[in-house]
Design a protein that fits this description.
This protein is mostly helical. Helices cover about 75% and strands about 0% of the residues. Helix 1 packs antiparallel against helix 2 and helix 4 packs antiparallel against helix 5. The longest helix has about 45 residues. It is elongated and about 65 Å long.
Amino acid sequence: MPKPPSRLRTVGRGVHRFVDVLAKAESILCALLLAVVLGTAVVQVIMRFVLHEPLAVSDEFARFAMIWLGFIGAALTQARDQHIAVLVIRGTGSRLRQQIMDGLANVVALVLGVWVLFLGKETLERSANVTSASLEIPMSVVYLSVVVGFGLIAVHALRNLANLAFHGQVDPEREDGSLAERQQLS
């Protein structure tokens, strides 16, 4: 593969580092959200079965945290190229075929991410005046998780496509990456 001009490489490295920091923040946020869900569930069990005083807000709080966890976690799996894939279809064949399948998967993720970003604006506006039953927070806070998650998926898909174009694989630094794993299957 020919190397891009030095200015483009410098910008590319900066963008790559920024997206790596973004993925690290997503990882930390997922760990925190998982702790919140677990902690809320433990408190609810203690309140309900030990103290016989269930909390009305804990179920809703845990549910909203789990929704955010799901969408941020989906973005993180896109960043790591670890979405569930049918390796029989995606992982067999020549290197070119594997690159095409990786490219196709990331183009679909990018298009869906951008599409949800555009649709999400209207949904957020419509849900701004609706509040949740127990916590009484605007439902737009909950729906924002979809927009943020798919926006991050789009960012990671774009980086994956750039890596594929410049390096021939989605994550050029990962030795245990899917490309090496798939090459062993063929």
